[in-house]
Amino acid sequence: MKQGLMDKKVAVIGLGKSGIAASKLLRSKGAYVMAFDLKTSEEIKEIREVLEPLGVEVHCGPYKVELLEEVSLVVLSPGVNPQAPLWLGLKRRGTKVIGELELGYWFTDEPIVAVTGTNGKSTTTSLIGHILQSYGRKVFVGGNLGVPLCEYVLSGKKVELLVLEVSSFQLETIEVFRPKVSVFLNISDDHFDRHPNFEAYLSAKLRIFENQMGDDFAVLNRDDPNVWAISTKLRPQVIPFSKSPLSGEGVWYAGDRIKWRLMGKEGEIPFGGGLLGWHNLENVLASVAVGLVLGVNEGVMAEALLNFKPLPHRVEFVREFRGVKFYDDSKATNPHATLKALESMQGPVVLIAGGQNKGLDLKSLRTKVEKVRAVVAIGEAAPEVEEAFVGAVPVVRAYDMEDAVRKAFALSEPGDSVLLSPACASFDMFRDYKHRGEEFKRAVWKLGTD
Fold first, then answer.
1. Which of 62, 188, 318, 335 sits CB 3.0–4.6 Å from 326 for a disulfide?
2. So what CATH class is 9-99?
3. What is the pLDDT of residue 83?
4. Domain 108-307: what homologous superfamily?
């Protein structure tokens, strides 16, 4: 779907990876681009040095409303809330307001596999890409995971399939975005610092199906009632996946294999956990369903599942020291993800949790207290973590990650696991979840060297 942008005035809001890619793409299509970022000119000096030579007019600091009122199109970065009064006001004036994902889609022809959900999106997106590449398909893997769609369009490369991780923030600003295959993994409370309530968060996620038609596919988690509730209201063909046997069509786990029944055929694929581990079972089932829909044979998928290397910071084994195993699950930025990680652990766990809460109730962490020997609370949310476990297991506070690792090890016994699974965002103490995970690993490897 091509859109004429020559000589149109366009505003790009937010100059992270998505905003930079959108600005470049718009200029390449002949648009007059004004890019806005709330940071100071000095803070985005390097970005200005990239964009200004391309003819992008960069504005720093508070948004200049009088300039925004001149444009016919606004492209919001995912971190910018489209429900803010400024953008709603522009829409009422007739200005089109979209996101970078929608913009990139305007200039793509390739079929799209789009993956959303609260947890597991990145692993599933990467695994689907790995399965398809193992089958010999030329694939681009990106979106919310790594490389923005606009950057792919700019590259001029052509592949057979686009496999995209899409977030609720991105889906809020679509108009015609239409995946050939959509995947909805799960949903639980998250991002209440952006969405006013669970219903609004769910509504944003459900937009992934908005433009799909009867010849498209929707891969849905049969075990998640909030996901499955939409199954009878969709136009695309629904493919369920489940950890339990299914009586009709779908993909499910049975003992040491994955069974499937689709489009009049059935079969099975051996799966014993492999490198992926059992905490990734839902992600594996969804990925297999996508592979089957796209014609990948069982042998290729079985081999791909065996040799796929899991992404870092997702229940990643770091080291065993004096009988205690250490796991980095820094990507767990909500309680549901932390509960999943606890479920996957063998033996007692000393949990390191806390950070910047996203408006979520951390008391739900207590539902897996039987797995927990002790808790080390960190960051702004330390008091909330402490409250969640008070009276159930010992809880101590730590002032930084090295302190947290030392205290967790001191509370552990041989045969235990120390698990960093914060249930919170990282921005109170770290640049992002990756930085938090790397600091955890550094502290773990420092044990015994003093």
1. 318
2. alpha beta
3. 87
4. Mur-like, catalytic domain (3.40.1190.10)
The DSSP line for 175-205 is SS---SEEEE----S--TTTSSSHHHHHHHH
Rounded Cα distance, 262 and 255, in Å: 20
| C-alpha to C-alpha distances, 278 to 158, 262, 366, 372, 374, nearest whole angstrom | 35, 24, 22, 19, 23
Three-state secondary-structure class, residue 442: helix
CB atoms within 10 A of CB 274: 15
Residues 304-338: tens digit of each pLDDT: 999 998 889 999 999 999 999 999 999 999 999 99
CATH 3.90.190.20 fits 316-446, yes or no: yes
Q: How many CB atoms lie within 10 A of CB 256?
A: 10
For residues 349 and 436, what is the distance between their CA atoms, to the nearest angstrom?
Answer: 19
Residue with tokens 């004036």: 93
Residues near 85 by Cβ (< 8 Å), separated by ≥ 6?
A: none
Q: What is the pTM of this model?
A: 0.90
Euclidean distance between CA atoms 145 and 435, whole angstroms: 16
The tokens describing 374, both together, are: 């002790």
- The Cα–Cα gap between 13 and 63 comes to 9
